[in-house]
Amino acid sequence: MVERDRLIAALEDATHASSIHNSQPWRFRLVEGGVAVHLDPTVTPRTVDPVGRWALASIGAVVANLELALTSRTGRAVVTEITLGDSIPEAADLAGGAAYGEGPLAVITLGEAAETTTAMTAARLHGAIKERHTTRGPLLGGPPTEEEWAELQAAVAWAPGIQATPASEPLVRSLLSLTARAEDARQEDEDYLEEIQNWVENEAPSGTGIPRGAIGAPDAEGHVPIRDFTQTPMGSSGDGEAVFFEDPPALLVLHAASDTPVDQLRAGYAMQRAMLEATALGLGIGVLGQALEEPDSRAAVDGAAEESFGAPVVVHQILRLGHPAGTITYAATPRRPVTDLILD
Ligand SMILES: Cc1cc2nc3c(=O)[nH]c(=O)nc-3n(C[C@H](O)[C@H](O)[C@H](O)COP(=O)(O)O)c2cc1C
Asked: For the Nitroreductase domain, which residue ranges apply (predicted)?
């Protein structure tokens, strides 16, 4: 029997996971031998997430952290059962994951004492949980080395069915152009801009959202279309000066053979593992997800990836990686107190 305090400490660690617009849609229930993870779709952004894939990915991210924290804090191996159904529900309302709000999406159970290598990996990545941040600034210190790409791919391989492929230069060009186009379209969408405004700094519900210091500055040459959090329905609220980004950026494509809800959750798990590995390696890691949010744009991304890889794939996330030129100082993003997230 693991004492409650240790479980709560692991849950607190887990809440430092990445989530869409820092909405932290996870809720936890302590169950016999472990923890059940639920989604609260009443707190998720909807316009940015029309089919709920980012809500499920956020749950996957917290599951990744929770596994590592539980093993590191208890010395025991974990078994995770994804209890989410395999097919996309027919419910009309998928936006923000509304259709997935019933019942747990994953149950993590503590098992026997962890093997040495599992315990060592868990300890190393557990140590990175609170150091990890989403990078939105330039990474001018060079791309990952061959060995670092291999470590990142191994981190992603923890998620069954999800693969990671570094994008070739032609694919990087296609992905950047599709992302820039998607970002431009977003800037014409009032609902989207209003939603962004609601998740930035003081407008976001307490303990969530993206502080102004974390939204980054635009690329002076426009090569790297990071998501723009400065535009509001009233116009730009940005005061950050543009800065020079790396050109070309190094991109890692997370992909799978299919696009089931389980794949979507596991892609978020894989992304979180990759982010922790990147942090442990001293790499910066950012997300370029805009082109994956609307069907036409998604199809174009999948098409570009198929042309590059020579086989059909479903792209689940696009990550930007690289070494920073110096030390990056990150503005901490807030988190809700863990006690508010535990269901009775
Ligand atoms: C599924 C998912 C999609 C995301 N998409 C983007 C994105 O397109 N652009 C971006 O800058 N950050 C993106 N993020 C990062 C979140 O904004 C970030 O995790 C959150 O604000 C908390 O900050 P932190 O990661 O620094 O702790 C995404 C995160 C998740 C889990």
From this structure: 129-292
